[in-house]
Structure formats: C-alpha cells, structure tokens
Amino acid sequence: MMDEFRLVMDGLTKEYNQQAEQLRDMYGRLDELAATACSEDRMVTVTVGPRGQVRDIELDPRVYRRLSPPELSRSVMEQIGVATAEIMERTRELMAPFAPEGLPYEEIFGEGVSFESFLPRPVDPPS
To answer: InterPro entries annotated for this entry (predicted)?
Structure first.
C-alpha cells in the first residue's frame, strides 16, 4: 500500500514539475514579445513590448511638413493602440493552453496582475 502511494506521489510530483517548467518557459517567451505598427502613410512607426510599454517611436523626417501636431499625436496614439492590441492577442494565444476552462483571460492576466505570482515552485519527490 505504501509503495502504491509513493508511486502516485512521485507521478504527481513529476507532472507538477513539468507543468511548472512549461509555465516558466512560456513566461520567458512572453517577455520576448514585441509588436510594431506603422501608419498607412509610413510617417509613424511604433514598437511596443510584451506589456504594451512603448519601446520605440520612429518618425519619418517629412512628418513635420505633412502632419499638423494634432494629426501627428493622433497617428502616434493610433499606432500604439494597434501594436498593443497585437501584443494582447499574441499573449492570449500563448497563454490559452494554460488558462483554466471557463475563466476569462482578463481575470487571470489583466492589467495589474503579475504572472510571476502564478508560477509554482518545483517540488522535490518525497524521500
């Protein structure tokens, strides 16, 4: 009876550690995400990182002759929105296999939630 229990516990420990490692790997891939959006007129290009933070804004040198300040501002904000939406969708796709069924993505990974807190620590099998 004790040997059966030990085998079951060893199996559960192994499965737990594999899932934890998969989550850590996924979190590493999430940190590498970036998305770039370019305006239709090619005047504004914006790159955002994995959490939607703006990493780079590139402006065509002709932008100041073609766009008024309000137009430039609007174009920058639009491209930030496009790139951020792409990051959100790619994040959702990467995390879908790990989200509990029926639980909305936003409740698990929405704004202000730290994914690191969801990562379990490896467990050593019982001796």
So the answer is: YbaB-like_sf (IPR036894), YbaB/EbfC (IPR004401)
